[in-house]
Amino acid sequence: MSDTSFTGRLRSFADSDLFYSFRRSKTTIIAAAALVLLFVTAVFAPQIAPHNPFDIAGLNLLDSELPPSWMEGGNPAYWLGTDTQARDVVSSIFYGLRISLFVGFASVLLAAVLGVFLGLVGGFVSGFVDAIIMRVADVLLSFPAILVALLINGVMRGILPANQHEGAAIVVLVLAIGLTNWVQYARTVRGSTLVERQREYVQAARTIGVGRLRIMLTHILPNVLGPVLVIATINLGMAVLTEATLSFLGVGMPPTQPSLGTLIRVGNEYLFSGIWWVVIFPSATLAVLVLAVNLIGDWLRDALNPKLR
Amino acid sequence: MLVFLVRRLLQAVMVMLAVAFIAFLMFRYLGDPVNNIVSQDATQEQREEVRKRLRLDDPLILQYGRFVVNAAQGDFGVSYRNSRPVSALLAERFPATAELVLVAAILSLALGIPLGIYTALKPRGVLSQGLQILSLVGISLPTFVTGILLILVFSVWLGWLPSFGRGDVIDIGWWWTGFLTATGLKALILPSFMLCLFQLTLIMRLVRAEMLEVLRADYIKFARARGLRNRTIHFRHALKNTLIPVVTIFGLQLGGLIAFAIITETVFQWPGMGALFIQAVNFTDVPVMAAYLVMVSLLFVIINTSVDLLYNVIDPRLRTDQTRATGRGA
Amino acid sequence: MALLEVENLKVEFPTRKGVLTAVDNVSFSVEQGEILGVVGESGAGKSMTGAAVIGLLEPPGRIGGGQIRLDGKRIDNLSPDEMRKVRGRHIGAIFQDPLTSLNPLFTVGKQLIETIRTHLPMPAAEARKRAIEWLAEVGIPAPDRRIDQYPHQFSGGMRQRVVIALALCAEPRLIIADEPTTALDVSVQAQIIALLKRVCRERNAAAILVTHDMGVIAETADRVAVMYAGRLAEIGPVARVLQKPSHPYTAGLMGSIPRIGPRPDRLVQIEGSMPRLTDIPKGCAFNPRCPKAIAECHHLRPELRPVADGAAACLLYEGVTQ
Prior knowledge:
The complex is a heterotrimer.
Chain A: H1 6-14, H2 16-24, H3 26-43, H4 45-48, H5 89-125, H6 127-141, H7 145-159, H8 165-180, H9 183-196, H10 200-207, H11 212-248, H12 260-268, H13 277-304
Chain B: H1 2-29, H2 44-53, H3 60-72, H4 86-121, H5 126-140, H6 143-157, E1 170-171, E2 176-177, H7 182-215, H8 218-225, H9 230-267, H10 273-283, H11 286-314, H12 316-320, H13 322-328
Antiparallel strand pairs in B: 1-2
Helix pairs in contact in B: 1-3, 1-11, 4-5, 4-7, 4-9, 5-7, 6-7, 6-9, 7-9, 9-10, 9-11, 10-11
Chain C: E1 4-15, E2 18-30, E3 35-39, H1 46-54, E4 62-70, E5 73-74, H2 80-86, E6 91-94, H3 98-101, H4 108-119, H5 124-137, H6 143-146, H7 156-168, E7 174-178, H8 186-203, E8 206-210, H9 214-220, E9 223-228, E10 231-237, H10 238-243, H11 248-255, E11 305-307, E12 310-312, H12 315-321
Parallel strand pairs in C: 3-8, 3-9, 6-7, 7-8
Antiparallel strand pairs in C: 1-2, 1-4, 4-5, 9-10, 10-12, 11-12
């Protein structure tokens, strides 16, 4: 049994091997740099975007469908060109990135909290509740994530009145993706909990009458957070991708509030009119984002937790 | 073997009943079924009438039972959106999806296994390293982006291949096939390639990893010590052991292909079940959603059960050891 | 001429921190029909020597120098395919774990037949007949039925019998057995060793028996080679080396074996442990642990020199011979 405690993981975090492997892996360094850049862009999008694509007053239809600035007919004010509505592609990407990353983080957070909670409960309470949770997890896992997310999405659209679809889109997405991805957390946490609860300190806490909830929160939870962190990183790429896919399919973010996926969907409709830049640049951004997250996730998994491989 | 078979079939039935229950709940509670059938200005009496006719006041368990019986006969009611029987809609969409998934599955195996073997046997080759990088990109690139790129290059710029639809299809009685016409085959190329790409990289990486693992095994070392030819060692001893996990993963991935077909069908406006499902999600067309869910689950269950059986055929350890064979089914 | 001659064999492992020498300047020979035992602690290089002889060093391991000759013909510089034809046909091998040596997805018959037909051209039916004979030869009951069974249907001891049949079925004249009984039940070990000895004797096949079990060596081998830290410490006839070891390390090894007798001696243990390959001391590799070490041992490396009816690498004898 390797050291699964949180402090143990922290120590292995700080272990020079990790930094060694980080410094050694050029791809990881590049991926990390790209990711930081994308984060900063997303967070400060309103401050650094050259235009506000949602300010209708600021749009000049004469400037629509401009190619990137280095091409013939390009306008230096619009570095990557404009779309059919004269919106600046760079600025659209910045704002889209913001929404994509927000949905990604929020759904990962939801999935992690839900999964950790259900895993703790399942592992600690056992019996019927545990059986139910794990059965549901099995069924969910046997379906592709995108299908489950689509179904949840569809059900929630059915519950909400049609006129609220646009406003609630971001919430619906976070719920759909979060509710799809909790299984891996739950399984991992349940496994660790089953091990931890046999340990002397937990047994001791029980005998002196510490409540179950308190034992879970103060004794077991800190010990299972390490693997959760790794899963969360890997899941972030998945979540961003799922959001983009749902938006691309037209059941995610609406065009009034576009994420990268929505931008690609809208751009795709103009593919044959030759304005390739409105689809290629958001696609490239999305690809770089997902690739960077995946590379870092892979590296983190290998470096920290060979057990999860 | 028979015990195992019966157990697996029972499990499959249980899963299907559970899925049917979810579908039933959606059908019953997602929106008011009555509202979706009667016209906007129907009177209260008309509504009551429909309610009675649908027997929505019966006990829940009875309604569920009726739903299951109807579903088992392929009756999922009438689509809210285009007022046609759902079963008819699905039946006319099914061949398109089936042909797309079939071609993609064959492509992913036919390319993924040899490439995986190659990269495992020649890990330092330039081609191998290139393929490794490509597969990493392939796994990270969103499938719809790949599709758009394919359309941009092969349809918009080069104009070689069609970017939407199935081309000409031929009615062979109970099935509309695109396999028998030149345009039908041409129309299949881009969508099936897009659909298979993700699975292809997955299978390639899996075969590579498994093969490398197997090549380190003692029985391979012993096979070398016996002086067997490299060809025999790689393609008889190593490959057979490599393919066992590949069979499992491929079974799971076949389900993935059906799900990802939704995206492919959207990108290429392919008239399959996935495109139908997306429309249904968009318009909360519950009968279609429920029917798709049941149908896809049925496919999954069939695939998973066959994979388990296939496993038994390939691996002699399971075949003769009954206790383990049945234990695995859980 | 000896069947196998190994001369100044060197096995190297390039690593991040430099090239490690796992087998250093080892020379020995094996006569026709002779059983040579190779003993030493784990990591002493004994398995590596066997792997080098059969040409199955795991990369990045490589032969860094010296020669290996079979029937006077060099085999250390053969092309991979030529070496493959030597393996199984001229040199057979048996590895430690019979549970993992057999491919679980093929019947034992298939594995036997493919080995036979790879090296000895004959029709399938005849190869099958011979495979059944081999199974009978290694003591497997009802061989004509067992031949179509899979490895998991055999017990551990039975599997090692199958492995022996596989190693011998193309009639090699040299067998390299690397810890052939370590993974087996104690009760089965003796049977397997006896079987190995019998089939070798009957065919006049020679064997290199790699083990850390002195008992097995005493029982089976004609001569014994003692390895320490990648070097040959001593080589000589079994009876003499066991009773009157020349090298202090061998003496230490003998002292650490429990004996049953009227007056059991106290177990003597060698102080310290074998050095890692990364920090082998200067001079004699054994010097830090040697009870008889003299000043020269710390900087002069002893060569293997004839001592009594064998040879030893120890400075104590350099003085004697010089």
